[in-house]
Amino acid sequence: MKAMRDAMKSLAAMANGKAAFDRAAVGVAANAIREKSGAAMMQLFPEGSTQHPSEALPKIWTDWPGFEFGAKTLEMRTGQLTAAEEPAALKKALGEVAGVCKDCHNRFRSR
Ligand code: HEC
């Protein structure tokens, strides 16, 4: 999750003109998110892992299809990041990706 946050930060800097737009760098960041989403993300949450200090809500396991949907949607949306050819398109794609992060956190994270 922390790697995803860092990737989102570097993408936001490029989308907002705070860093030079560089498609190779966009690809690297999008990949970092993709690698941590989908099936890889689901593996991070084996049933019962709330026993460890964690902000993960038990709802993850009672609504596994909802969680799986979020993880897979995130994986899919990273494709829109890679497809962005200029900052405005990146900004739009980034907004959609951030929406997926937020939606899942609202439902499955305790704070
Ligand atoms: C399918 C659900 C889901 C999606 C999608 C998701 N997250 Fe999370 N995220 C969680 C859960 C659950 C936690 C709490 C994990 C814990 O405490 O064990 C979390 C925690 C975090 C944390 C807290 C630090 C940490 O490592 O625990 C950060 C930062 C974070 N997510 C960033 C992101 C970003 C950025 C995205 C989008 C690119 C994203 N997340 C997408 C479910 C999700």
What do you see in this structure?
The protein has 111 residues and is mainly α. The protein has one domain (2-45, 57-108): Cytochrome c/b562 (Four Helix Bundle (Hemerythrin (Met), subunit A), Up-down Bundle), CATH 1.20.120.10. Helix content is 72%, strand content 0%. It has six helices and no strands. Helix 1 runs antiparallel to helix 2. It is elongated, with a radius of gyration of 15 Å.
Q: Ends: how far apart?
A: 15 Å
**Overall body shape:** elongated
User: What is the count of structural domains?
Assistant: 1
What value does the Rg take, in angstroms? 15 Å
**Care to count the β-strands?**
0
| CATH top level label | Mainly Alpha
Q: Low-confidence parts lasting 5 or more residues at pLDDT below 50?
A: none
Which fold name fills CATH's third level, the topology? Four Helix Bundle (Hemerythrin (Met), subunit A)
How would you classify the helix and strand content by structural class? mainly alpha
Mean pLDDT: 94
Bound molecule types: heme C
Report the CATH superfamily.
Answer: Cytochrome c/b562
Show the helix and strand layout.
Blueprint: H1 2-15, H2 23-36, H3 38-43, H4 59-62, H5 64-83, H6 87-108
Helix pairs in contact: 1-2, 1-6, 2-5, 5-6
Bound molecules: heme C.
Protein traits:
111 residues; mainly alpha; Four Helix Bundle (Hemerythrin (Met), subunit A); 6 helices; 72% helix; binds heme C
Condensed summary:
With 111 residues, this protein is an all-alpha fold.
